[in-house]
Amino acid sequence: MSPEQIVFTIISHAGNARSYCFEALKHARNGDFDKAKNCISKAGEEIIEAHHVQTELIQKEVQGEKQEISLLLIHAQDHLMNAMLAKDLVEEMIGLYQIVFKGGRIGE
Question: Phosphohistidine (modified residue): where (predicted)?
């Protein structure tokens, strides 16, 4: 893969993951926790795919094959980090929606 293909592969998978996260949140807000769980699962799969590409870059660097650090690569890494953070936060928010829908209180 060319450096540009690597960057856009990471961005594509990270963007898909982020989209699935917010779709999951929408389903949770509507009380459809099965659909929310499915979307979170898909987000996780997309993050794994992006992470595989990132891991290949790291392995190549460890073997002495340096990757040129470009603004695009930094941008891709930023997208991946944000997708990972979004997934963690959305999972927590889904848990809160589940409490609300059950009529419980946070901390019970």
Answer: 75
